[in-house]
Design brief:
This protein is α+β, with helices and mostly antiparallel strands. The protein has three helices and two strands. 40% of the residues lie in helices and 13% in strands. Strands 1-2 form a two-stranded antiparallel ribbon. The protein is globular and about 35 Å long. The model has no long low-confidence stretch (mean pLDDT 83).
Length: 97
């Protein structure tokens, strides 16, 4: 039974290298403790985290190590844009106000 007040935490991780692959790949996915571990590892390695429960729900249904389907390109492109901007700010020493 799902508790709507306290939904089970979910997380996914994408891997993308434009010079090596055509589309991002689902690298990890999990719920509960596994989701917490994915998030913990991302923080440990300084990987930006973007929360989008709807997208996580959809990506969580995909098979691991598979490219995301074309119908998700736009949504994932927005997330990657956020990640690249955050990474550029971090590398330039930019601090959020």
């Amino acid at each position: 039974m799902k508790d709507k007040k306290h939904p089970i935490r979910q997380a996914v991780a994408l891997r993308y290298s434009p010079d090596q692959m055509q589309a991002p790949i689902l690298a990890a996915k999990g719920k509960g403790v596994v989701a917490d571990e994915i998030i913990s590892k991302a923080k440990e390695y300084g990987i930006p985290i973007q929360e989008d429960p709807s997208l996580v729900e959809v990506l969580g249904q995909l098979e691991l190590e598979r490219e995301i389907p074309p119908e998700l390109y736009q949504l994932v492109a927005e997330i990657l844009s956020f990640v690249y901007r955050a990474d550029n700010r971090a590398n330039s020493g930019y601090k959020l106000p």
